[in-house]
Design goal:
By secondary structure, the protein is an alpha+beta fold. Among the domains are: 104-164, Dna Ligase, domain 1, CATH 3.30.1490.20; 167-252, D-amino Acid Aminotransferase, Chain A, domain 1. The protein has helices spanning 3-7, 26-36, 52-60, 70-77, 79-89, 104-114, 140-155, 212-228; strands spanning 40-41, 64-65, 118-122, 132-134, 160-164, 170-178, 184-196, 199-204, 233-242, 245-252. It has a five-stranded antiparallel sheet with strand order 8-7-6-9-10. A three-stranded antiparallel sheet has the order 4-3-5, covered by helices on one side. Strands 1-2 form a two-stranded parallel ribbon. A hairpin with a 2-residue loop joins strand 7 and strand 8. Helix 6 crosses helix 7 (140-155). It is globular, with a radius of gyration of 20 Å.
Length: 256
């Protein structure tokens, strides 16, 4: 047994090493929580942490999910829905659509209206999957179909949308904490622009490129974003910073 299991006062097996048979089994986690007499489940930062269905299952079992509500997780996990909610709340978003495009023709019309270059993105995506930069009208159809295929394979959802492509923006994140009474605070910013294949390699806090005014405005926007979805628990608001302006990118509805 692992040292941390040996040192624990109580330990409960949840399955074999394969995550699909253990840490991804919501039913087993809830079963163990009840068997141990636990009153709450903390999802951590991986596996089921951002699955609305797991949060709902925990609540349905009469336990406390330490994190946001299932409704919040679902809303912020869908990029188009998240963009729509942020726009309604007055949080700046990258110019673009708040609904998915369903055909190459629709994507082309939207791209022409936005102006090239544009970025095709998976609505349910993350980690750079289902993304394509499109430089010209003639390339939209091929990029749309490729983004859809990749999104379906990675997320089981081929919905894609468009937004304006920002060339080499800064990626800046702000940690937020919310309680069950509508109170939200932010814990400062971190610079996350050094990435490889859309995966962060180095984080630096605070960001060296923000002025005091920009930092304050971004912090206020992060709090505003969290309040707009009645956020509860720890989460991260991600922004793009480009030519002195910042735009909401997405929210990670978990500890990060």
């Amino acid at each position: 047994l692992a040292p941390h299991v040996l040192e624990a006062d109580e330990a409960y097996p949840i399955g074999p090493a394969a995550s699909a048979e253990s840490y991804l089994r919501a039913d087993k986690l809830i079963e163990v929580a009840k068997a141990s007499g636990a009153e709450a489940i903390h999802p951590g930062y991986g596996f089921l942490a951002e699955q609305a269905s797991f949060a709902q299952a925990v609540e349905d079992a009469g336990l406390i999910f330490v994190g946001p509500t299932p409704e919040t997780i679902a809303a912020m996990g869908d990029k188009t829905e998240a963009r729509r909610r942020m726009a309604e709340a007055g949080v700046p978003i990258v110019p673009g659509l708040t609904e998915a495009v369903t055909s190459p023709e629709e994507a082309t019309a939207a791209a022409v209206q936005l102006g090239f270059p544009v970025l095709l993105k998976a609505s349910a995506g993350g980690g750079g999957k289902g993304m394509r930069v499109v430089e010209a009208e003639a390339d939209v159809k091929r990029a749309f179909e490729a983004a859809q295929r990749e999104a379906l394979a990675a997320f089981g959802d081929d919905s894609v949308y468009l937004e304006r492509y920002l060339d080499q923006p800064r990626h800046i994140e702000i940690q937020v904490l919310g309680d069950a009474h509508g109170n939200v605070v932010h814990l400062g910013d971190r610079e996350c622009s050094i990435q490889r294949r859309h995966q962060k390699l180095i984080e630096e806090a605070p960001s060296p490129v923000l002025s005091a005014e920009a930092r304050a405005a971004m912090g206020e926007a992060a709090v505003q974003a969290a309040k707009a979805v009645d956020y509860r628990g720890a989460g991260t608001i991600e922004f793009l910073y480009h030519d002195g302006e910042f735009f909401f990118l997405e929210m990670n509805t978990r500890l990060q």
